[in-house]
Amino acid sequence: MIPLVSIITPSFNQARFLEQTIQSVLSQDYPNIEYIIVDGGSTDGSLEIIQKYATRLAWWVSEPDQGQTDAINKGFARARGEVLAWLNSDDTYEPGAVSAAVAYLQAHPEAGMVYGEANFIDEHGRVIGRFNAKQASYRRLRRGAVYIPQQAAFFRASLWQQVGPLDPSFYFAMDYDLWVRLARVSELHYCPGQVWANFRLHGAAKSIAEDDRCWPEMLRIHRRDGGGWLSIIMLRYLVRRLLAPLVMWRRKRQIRA
After folding, report:
1. What is the CATH number of the domain that holds 116?
2. Which pTM value belongs to this model?
3. What's the rounded Cα separation, in Å, for the pair 43 and 226?
């Protein structure tokens, strides 16, 4: 029997993009998907969109929660799949993404997680760039080199049982924290050239509106795991702080083009 894949979508007031996200999951050609949506009590019409697809969902809920990390943990607590992933409610999968990820994991039992490429798209779904994905490792991650597009990542539930759940104290870096914990106990594999997902950049997205919260959380992880102040990740942080205005200007220019 082919593995069950559990996909979680956390959402809150994302009616503008939510249906595209749902359709990108439900249109996958992989025949054994358990799709779970955890909504934080939206008031913008999201509930009506979720109800429209309710018969095709394994489980859904719309109730106040403690934010995105809490919603993802709530979804994975319900998940029964052998392979897990989450897709945020403004991002989308490319056709064939789930099939390709499962095939890779089946062919490479040593891999605990696999990830492909991800496009950057704007609010209208137009491709405006490509995530800088590269091969990751525990050492690279500890140095602050985050080359993993979360939208295009799939990992084994057996490892989630070892290292999960996500740390609810993180607002931004919960995925980085998970990658570090997974890489400590297993191999993370990258499939170059295979575009599996689309990462949407828009004015209300965290990566645009609150990017400055990411690196301080990454440094918390670094210090928690025994890292010192004189380190490569600290140097990266200082450089990023200097370049932050330019980085944000370029991102905003991308989404306005």
Report:
1. 3.90.550.10
2. 0.91
3. 43
